[in-house]
Write a structure and sequence with these properties.
Chain B: Keywords: Cell membrane, Membrane, Transmembrane, Transmembrane helix, Transport. Chain B: It is a multi-pass membrane protein. The complex is a heterodimer of chains A (291) and B (429). Chain A is 76% helix and 2% strand. Chain A is mainly α and 291 residues long. Chain A has one domain. The longest helix of chain A has 41 residues. Chain B has 429 residues and is mainly alpha-helical. Chain B folds into three domains: 231 residues, Arp2/3 complex 21 kDa subunit ARPC3 (Orthogonal Bundle); 32 residues; 104 residues, no CATH class. In chain B, helix 4 packs across helix 5 and helix 5 packs antiparallel against helix 6. Classes of the chains: A mainly alpha (291), B mainly alpha (429). Chains A and B meet through helix 1, helix 2, helix 5, helix 6 and helix 8 of A and helix 3, strand 1, helix 4, helix 5 and strand 4 of B.
Chain lengths: 291, 429
């Protein structure tokens, strides 16, 4: 008995000493893993990967707008079926697509929506009495809760599908087609590169801290270390930005950005875009006139 | 705090762009003026920095962890305009690439975390710090308070945005998007942040400023000076002791209450702090104060010595609170947010329906926060007996809650241990 309790306390101390470090390291690893995975998938031969990124971004915006405006329990599942089909044709692993979408955000949305389903004023389907309080879903609140979760799920699926089938650099270039100023596009692409450098340094800092920690340290000390490393990273950011600027200036950067655009919209891209618009109109009409 | 797609109406999400896009435009111009061609590399690197520190886990008391945004820290160093672009860029990458926060909701998320947060944080910091020397403690407090208010304001904005949805968008009486009205969404967002995330952010920002003061004080000057690596007149380290800070805060609070009371009482001095003091029997109050003081002298040291070390500080504070609570009985009228529905009705002229329903759930054993005995609670008992009953019921309540928590905690750890043992056995097999 004594040994188990001491084991428990050792475990607790371990978690208090290293839990936040391990969580951060795991988070960084997950972000890098996700980026690698995405790049891998966006370069596979598939239906959506073959499309022009500008067409894809426009399709995404049109459909996500239609899904957000939709309010029908027929249209949203139909749209989701179409998405599943597209995911299959684009060689996105099925279980990954479903798991990544449904375990995260819609689950959270479900928890958020739950009280509003059960606390309702209309006629209830069943009644749970807790003292003077009565809980129970009405058919209307159940319906609107389900629609809410379905809409969030479909929107997230759409975003995941776009991300998984388009390389990051292509998403950025297609932003130009939507008249996002060039300076923002350059900013985004540089940021994206430096993120991995920073994640790498942060990972190194946390691993160094973990491997050097012997014995206990107080929460105050740990928090001091975290904010110290933030400020240290900030100092490095300043130094790095000066170096990067010097390197850019040496290569002739004068504040203007030029980029060449090798993309051409083919007939296939236009067809896909028109189909997406039709899909969006269809979803809108189902919601408005059928159900 | 990232709002996903589907929570806000698309019309509303895109509509927040009307506020967000001009601010971005102004920000780019302002930053360009200072930095010229350095703008892009500096902002890109700081956006990456902002993205990275959003991933840092911060240990919080109780063994869990929390995240910070670091928006105020960036705003303190880079100024609000550069912070707007840096944080917004990080948020856009999170949405477009990591699926964190909705794509249509980008404008709303950038408004909350990328604009409101750094601006509130920065201006509160400037207001409090004003021209204090770079290494003064005042700057640390200013950054902490700025960060706290920045996140809280940002949470308030999220609450308002979510709470507006059922008002603006509904069909046939049913909300189409986030279903909670303003009076639910705002308190939920505000309370959960004001008591949690904001405190963490404030602490991390304050500690970050301490580190910067110690190692790189030049970053606390202007952005232009920072980039050009100008010499900063660091000044000497000025510390203001904690008790002075607390005393200042307390007297400020009292002054505000006094002023508010005078205004609502139309300048009448018998109505200080908003209540009618002419009904108070001061001799009763004196007796009660003597008893409370005696109890405090006995109970607080007792609690300090009896409680186990791990909960000594917290436990003693709670006991002290319980002992001094009856002082609240002096004030005529009801303690705020403690009153029965009838008190509420008297004060506000109406009774919320939900409160009436709720109050029936508990017919508490210590109804009215007093023991059910004629000694404490009779019609004409002197104040000190009421106070004593109040006190005893408070202590009993704390004890009950403590026992309850302890019981649940032991149950949980026992289960955990059993699982561990089973796993070990399996491993042995």
């Amino acid at each position: 008995m004594n040994t188990t309790s001491s084991q428990g306390s050792v475990k607790k101390t371990y978690r208090r000493q290293f839990g936040w470090i391990e969580k951060t390291i795991a988070g960084i690893a997950a972000a890098i893993e996700q980026a690698v995975f995405t790049e891998e998938h966006s370069r596979q031969p598939g239906l959506l990967q073959a499309l022009d990124p500008r067409a894809k971004l426009a399709m995404f915006l049109v459909v996500v707008l239609a899904a957000s405006l939709s309010n029908s329990l027929v249209a949203l599942p139909c749209l989701y079926l179409v998405l599943l089909l597209l995911a299959r044709l684009s060689k996105v692993p099925f279980d990954f697509f479903i798991r990544r979408v449904w375990i995260g955000i819609p689950f959270f949305a479900g928890i958020v929506i739950l009280p509003s389903v059960f606390v309702t004023s209309g006629p209830r389907l069943f009644d749970i009495a807790l003292g003077a309080l009565h809980f129970g879903p009405s058919s209307a609140s159940l319906l609107s809760g389900t629609i809410f979760i379905a809409r969030v799920g479909v929107s997230v699926s759409l975003a995941v599908l776009l991300i998984l089938t388009t390389p990051w650099s292509d998403i950025l270039k297609s932003l130009r087609a939507f008249h996002v100023p060039q300076i923002f596009v350059l900013l985004l692409s540089m940021t994206y590169r430096y993120i991995f450098l920073f994640l790498h340094s942060a990972n190194g800092m946390f691993e160094a801290r973990k491997s050097r920690t012997v014995g206990r340290s107080s929460g105050q000390e740990q928090r001091g270390w975290v904010s110290g490393s933030m400020s240290h990273l900030m100092n490095r950011s300043f130094k790095m930005s000066n170096d990067v600027y010097a390197a850019m200036a040496a290569r002739g950067f004068q504040g203007e950005v030029r980029s060449y655009n090798a993309y051409r919209m083919t007939a296939q891209d236009w067809l896909a875009l028109v189909l997406a618009c039709l899909l969006a109109v269809l979803i809108f009409c189902i919601g408005r006139y059928v159900l | 705090m990232h709002i996903p797609d589907g929570y806000l109406s698309p019309v509303f999400s895109l509509g927040t762009g009307v506020a967000t896009i001009p601010v971005w435009g102004v920000a780019v111009n302002k930053v360009k003026k200072v930095l010229n061609q350095r703008t892009v590399p500096l902002l890109a690197i700081f956006a990456a920095f902002s993205f990275t520190i959003m991933m840092f886990n911060i240990p919080v008391p109780g063994g869990t962890t929390a995240h910070a945004i670091g928006g105020t820290l960036i705003a303190v160093v880079l100024g609000p305009w550069a912070a707007v672009i840096g944080i917004s860029t990080a948020l856009i990458i999170q949405a477009l690439f990591f699926g964190d926060g909705g794509v249509l909701a980008i404008f709303a998320n950038c408004l909350n975390m990328g604009i409101i947060l750094p601006f509130i944080g920065y201006f509160v910091y400037r207001l409090i710090a004003s021209r204090a020397p770079l290494r003064s403690t005042r700057r640390v407090w200013a950054a902490g308070i700025g960060a706290y208010l920045g996140i809280t304001a940002s949470a308030l904005a999220v609450g308002i945005e979510l709470g507006l949805q059922p008002l603006l968008f509904q069909a046939g009486g049913h909300p189409l998007y986030s279903p909670y009205p303003l009076q639910v969404a705002i308190p939920t967002m505000l309370l959960s942040h004001a008591l949690g995330a904001s405190l963490v952010e404030a602490l991390v920002t304050a500690l970050g400023v301490v580190y910067i003061q110690k190692n790189h004080p030049q970053y606390l000057t202007t952005l232009r000076g920072t980039v050009a690596e100008a010499d900063a007149s660091a000044g000497s380290r000025q510390a203001m002791p904690l008790w002075q800070m607390l005393a200042l805060g307390l007297s400020c609070g009292l002054a505000i209450l006094l002023a508010a009371g005078l205004i609502t009482g139309h300048g009448d001095f018998t109505h200080l702090f908003g209540t009618d003091w002419s009904h108070v029997a001061w001799s009763d109050v004196g007796i009660m104060l003597v008893i409370v003081l005696g109890l405090a002298l006995g109970l607080i040291p007792l609690a300090w010595f009896l409680l186990p070390k791990s909960i000594r500080k917290v436990g003693t504070i709670f006991v002290a609170l319980a002992v001094f609570v009856p002082i609240g009985l002096i004030a005529p009228g009801f303690a705020y947010a403690e009153g029965s529905p009838e008190d509420v009705k008297q004060a506000f002229g109406y009774m919320p329906q939900g409160l009436k329903q709720l109050s029936g759930v508990w017919s508490a054993p210590f109804s009215g926060y007093n023991l059910q005995s004629s000694f404490f609670n009779g019609p004409n008992v002197p104040m000190w007996r009421q106070g004593l009953g109040y006190e005893l019921s408070g202590l009993l309540g704390i004890l009950l809650i403590g026992v309850l928590f302890w019981g649940v905690a032991t149950l949980l750890t026992h289960q955990h241990k059993d699982e561990n043992m089973q796993q070990e056995e399996r491993a042995h097999v």
